[in-house]
Amino acid sequence: MRGRELLNMVGELHGLHGAPLRKRVGEVLEIVGLENAAHRRIGGYSGGMRQRLGIGQALINQPKVLFLDEPVSALDPEGRRDVLEIISRLRGTATVFISTHILNDVERVCDRVAILNFGHLVVEGPIDDLLDRYAQPIYELVPEPQQPGAIERLAGIMREQPWQHEVLATADTVRVFVNDPRVAGPALLPLVVSSGVSLARFERARPSLEDVFLRLVAESGTAIAPQVDIPVSGLDGRGRR
User: Fold this and answer.
1) If you ran DSSP here, which 8-state letter would residue 17 be given?
2) Largest Cα–Cα distance of the chain, in whole Å?
């Protein structure tokens, strides 16, 4: 079956025929960016193209509510970008619910988010509100290269400070979560100087949805269950959150 043939069949199942069906299939092919591939066999489609065609099937009858379960899973970066752009363009035409564990994608396209842990609702609300309410200030320290033990020294010093809530160290970065940035901000650089470590970068980072998720799930008192976190996007067809 070819892409256009599949959409025609789905449209007929929804009661569309003749000119209205041809018009709607053409509109959907344009929405999902498959106009030039509509004549090709679906068996030759890439994973991203198949995912876009699947979204097209769901859009044939112009639904007011659309549920998408992990719509960008197993796609390459280009495929993920294309699918997320389609979802973003649906704003104003449908209310879209997305379940996913890729929190960066949630921040790109969603207005609201709900976090579930083992089936229990932890929090729900507009993303900006959740970031303001629950994301703690974060400072990132990146040492210059070729300084053996720099990460360990910085992390150790920061963990001794009363104003830090948590210190996370990776191979090249130390992230310091602080309780009061008015106290931590002026104190950080003198501590770095006293450690003898030279920095390549120092900044106050914008907390991410992942930071909020990890904090709230930890505070909920239950271990994280793999792929149970379900952020939800609510894009109201009338432009309301």
Assistant:
1) -
2) 77
Q: How far apart are CA 162 and CA 160, in angstroms?
A: 7
Could you tell me the two tokens for 77?
Answer: 């970066």
Q: In 3-state terms, what secondary structure has residue 113?
A: strand
Q: Distance between CA 27 and CA 109 in Å, rounded?
A: 22
How is residue 69 written in tokens? 């379960």
- 16 with 24: CB under 8 angstroms? yes
Cα–Cα distance, 82 to 78 (Å, whole number): 6
3-state secondary structure 147-172: CCCHHHHHHHHHHCCCCEEEEEECCC
Provide the token pair at 127. Answer: 């993303």
Q: Which of 210, 74, 46, 31 is nearest to 131 (CA)?
A: 210
d(CA 138, CA 132): 13
Q: How far apart are CA 100 and CA 82, in angstroms?
A: 16
Length of the chain: 241
DSSP designation for 225? P
Q: Is 220 helix (H, G, I), strand (E, B) or coil?
A: coil
Report the alpha-carbon distance of residue 179 to residue 195 in Å, rounded: 22
| Predicted local distance difference test score (pLDDT) of residue 140 | 92
The Cα–Cα gap between 24 and 189 comes to 60
The answer to whether the CB of 137 falls within 8 A of the CB of 204 is yes
Task: Of 128, 52, 118, 123, give the one whose Cα is nearest residue 90.
Answer: 52
Which contiguous run of DSSP H or E holds residue 205? strand 199-205
Q: What would the mean pLDDT of 149-176 be, rounded to a whole number?
A: 90
pLDDT in tens, 224-239: 433 334 344 444 444 4
Cα–Cα distance between 112 and 130 in angstroms, integer? 9
